[in-house]
């Protein structure tokens, strides 16, 4: 059983992007869409869902915060480390 904790992910501009259920140690590199608890910014859990290789941008400062990839068979947002802040 992997231990998971809820973390908050912010854009560098200060906007709260999402609350995410993170497993394991280390810094957040990707966010699997199915484990995004609350999409505070309305960027991730949209309909229709983001497509592969789509770039996700902060609605406030318009910086690219992530790119959509498939990781281990699941859709995930690969985070732009230069654009996000994590506690
Ligand atoms: Zn921003």
Task: Note down, in words, how this protein is organized.
The chain is mostly beta strands and 87 residues long. The chain has one domain. The protein contains no helices and 8 strands. It has strands spanning 4-11, 16-23, 30-32, 36-38, 55-57, 64-71, 74-79, 84-85. Strands 4-2-1-8 form a 4-stranded antiparallel sheet, with no helix packed on it. Strands 3-7-6-5 form a 4-stranded antiparallel sheet, with no helix packed on it. The chain starts with a strand and ends with a strand. Zinc ion binds at residues 11, 13, 15, 58, 60-61, 63. Residues 11, 13, 15, 58, 60-61, 63 line the site of zinc ion (ZN).
Summarize the SSE layout with pairings.
Elements: E1 4-11, E2 16-23, E3 30-32, E4 36-38, E5 55-57, E6 64-71, E7 74-79, E8 84-85
Antiparallel strand pairs: 1-2, 1-8, 2-4, 3-7, 5-6, 6-7
Bound molecules: zinc ion.
Zinc ion (ZN) binds at residues 11, 13, 15, 58, 60-61, 63.
List key phrases describing it.
single chain; 87 residues; mainly beta; four-stranded antiparallel sheet; 8 strands; binds zinc ion
Strand content of the residues, in percent? over 45%
Helix content range: under 10%
Low-confidence parts, pLDDT < 50 over ≥5 residues? Answer: none
Helix-strand topology string: EEEEEEEE
The number of helices is 0
Q: Which small-molecule species are bound to the chains here?
A: zinc ion
Decide which structural class fits the backbone: mainly beta
Mean pLDDT: 95
Number of strands: 8
- CA-atom Rg in angstroms: 12 Å
Number of domains: 1
Biggest pleated-sheet summary:
4 strands, antiparallel
